[in-house]
Amino acid sequence: MLVTLTGGAGAGKTTLAAALVASAPQAPARVLHGDDYYSKIPERGVWDAG
Question: In Å, how far from its chain's centre is CA 34?
Answer without folding.
Answer: 4
